[in-house]
């Protein structure tokens, strides 16, 4: 049998191949000194590769102490691979990196081969997300206290006034205050929500849907849940929140006497109503924060649904139900066999 592989790969070819991977590469031996680094790695510190060759690992990786290098080296088994996120520092530059280090032996001599990837941009994004979360927490505090308190005072005075005065204008004021209360609640919910979910466990989709239905004002509407007792793996409290928001959306847009169905398929479940549905041109926008086609709505409920779906690793899409109403399909769900 013959091979099409070249019989001899020149050092120049190998060096070009290593550079093509687009990440830093470093190789060091038993004494902890680099015997090879590529240009991508040297570029992290603004130097040439030759300057790093012969440099000890602990001069570049502050997390590894010279006195503990022997223990670090002997802790590796042949062909073992480890991943880590750390800081590499040299030439007055500090770079957060993700590393993959593998022990390999060549002609009986062991080396550590490592790839080093700059993760500065990811760390910057993480810090920005942390700052945004802190601002959201501050906002949630304002919503919860500084807005709700005066609203409650206004509602209290309105209730007292209505005991002595019977005018349609007071009903309009009451409706406006109710609207503000809903807006504040959903703003707070949105500010405190994220794409994270808590502990997941098998839960009954029918039982959670029925509990959510009881939590929503649906005196004239009808709910159908799946036959049997299909169970899926989910964070039960977040799934409850998902159903509550989808049910409120159905009541707001399809009317108080709509018929809502929760059904299951091989890969997920759906919530459908018998209302007018959502035009195809608007289906991509319904999950945008603040977008609504109903002047009574806030546009936050479906954004929260999207967060919950994403947190579980599911997907959601809007289609048309069998009765022409809106249908929300959630796919990628893990069901538990009975």
TrEMBL record:
CDD domains: HisKA (cd00082), PAS (cd00130). Residues 142-330 form the Histidine kinase domain. Pfam families: HATPase_c, HisKA, PAS_4. SUPFAM superfamilies: ATPase domain of HSP90 chaperone/DNA topoisomerase II/histidine kinase, Homodimeric domain of signal transducing histidine kinase, PYP-like sensor domain (PAS domain). Its EC number is 2.7.13.3. It catalyses: ATP + protein L-histidine = ADP + protein N-phospho-L-histidine. PROSITE patterns: HIS_KIN, PAS. One of its GO terms (molecular function) is phosphorelay sensor kinase activity. Keywords: Kinase, Phosphoprotein, Transferase, Two-component regulatory system. Residues 10-61 form the PAS domain. This is histidine kinase. It comes from Halobaculum saliterrae.
């Amino acid at each position: 049998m013959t091979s099409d592989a070249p019989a001899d790969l020149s050092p120049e070819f190998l060096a070009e191949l290593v550079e093509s991977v687009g990440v830093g590469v470093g190789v060091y031996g038993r004494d902890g000194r680099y015997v090879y680094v590529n240009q991508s790695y040297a570029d992290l510190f603004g130097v040439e590769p030759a300057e790093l060759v012969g440099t000890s690992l602990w001069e570049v990786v502050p997390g590894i102490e010279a006195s503990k290098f022997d223990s670090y080296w002997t802790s590796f088994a042949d062909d073992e691979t480890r991943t880590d996120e750390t800081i590499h520092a040299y030439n007055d530059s500090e770079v957060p990196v993700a590393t993959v280090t593998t022990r390999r032996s060549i002609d009986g001599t062991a080396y550590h081969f490592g790839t080093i990837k700059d993760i500065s941009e990811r760390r910057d994004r993480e810090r920005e997300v942390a700052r945004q979360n802190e601002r959201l927490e501050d906002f949630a505090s304002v919503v919860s206290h500084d807005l709700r308190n005066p609203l409650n005072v206004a509602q209290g005075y309105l209730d007292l006034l209505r005991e002595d005065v019977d005018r349609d204008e007071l009903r309009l004021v009451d409706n406006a205050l109710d609207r503000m209360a809903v807006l504040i609640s959903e703003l707070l919910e949105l500010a405190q929500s994220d794409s994270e979910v808590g502990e997941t466990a098998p839960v009954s989709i029918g039982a959670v849907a029925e509990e959510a239905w009881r939590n929503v004002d649906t005196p004239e509407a009808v709910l159908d849940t799946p036959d049997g007792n299909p169970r899926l793996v989910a964070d039960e409290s977040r799934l409850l929140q998902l159903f509550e928001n989808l049910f409120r959306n159905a009541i707001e847009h399809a009317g108080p006497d709509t018929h809502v169905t929760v059904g299951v398929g091989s890969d997920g479940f759906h919530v459908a109503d018998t209302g007018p549905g959502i035009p195809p041109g608007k289906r991509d926008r319904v999950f945008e924060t603040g977008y609504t086609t109903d002047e009574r709505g806030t546009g936050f409920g479906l954004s929260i649904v999207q967060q919950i779906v994403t947190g579980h690793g599911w997907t959601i899409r809007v289609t048309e139900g069998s009765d022409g109403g809106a249908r929300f399909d959630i796919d990628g769900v893990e069901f538990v066999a009975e």
